[in-house]
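Fig. S4 source data, part A: sequence.
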Amino acid sequence: MPFPLLVLALAATSPPRIARYHVPGWTVTVRSDPFIDARSCKVEARRIRLQGPLVWFDLGRAARTQDVVYRIDGGPPQDLGTAHLDPLKLSQDEALNNPSGGEVGLPAGLLTGARFVWIRADDARRPVRFDVSRLPQAVSLAARLDCPLADDEAPTR
């Protein structure tokens, strides 16, 4: 078998490769699948993930997020409401009992230059602090790795 065909055959039959890169507090995971010639990327921190134009904050599955209030750094408190929820992506049980599954999504554009986001699920809970200060570096790393961030985390070709 000629060498170029051998290389092509090996690339087409090799399993997906996963590589992880780090920015302090953040992990960029690149998954390359040579079989379908696709690549996907995840940008995550502890209890935070970037998905398309939204940054998702995990308050825990038990947190009810109907009355979320958030603050960015020392800014004023903001009501979130439920406009960020997509009921088509939720199971019936989650939609009826806990529509967000304890996650709160904020537009990434709101967090430009921010250091911390404070989120309180309801007035019976304490606010939770999330460090987003290195988010721009993590997004920049993903771009340098030629790994665009898809809106739905689907592999890109």
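Fig. S4 source data, part B ends here. The two ends are 28 Å apart (CA to CA).
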